[in-house]
Amino acid sequence: MPTIHTLHSVKIDVYSREHLPPHFHALYAEDEILVEIKTLDTYAGYLPARQHNMVLKWAGGPGIQAFLRDIFKRLNPHLRS
What is the distance, to the nearest Å, from the Cα of residue 13 to the centroid of all Cα atoms in its chain? Predict the structure, then answer.
């Protein structure tokens, strides 16, 4: 279950067998960013500004961080965050 949401042409993915910190991937064409769920800091990659801002606005919406955190924990039960 990697793709959990799509924002226009941006895919939001959460993978199993991941690493800390809890994060999600946002993919647009050949570009990708990794975003920490707790802080919404982008810590790797690149997206064009319009798509990047759209992803962060969505992720900061009501209940979305809890939703992402729950999926990350379910897919990565071996990690303690």
Answer: 6
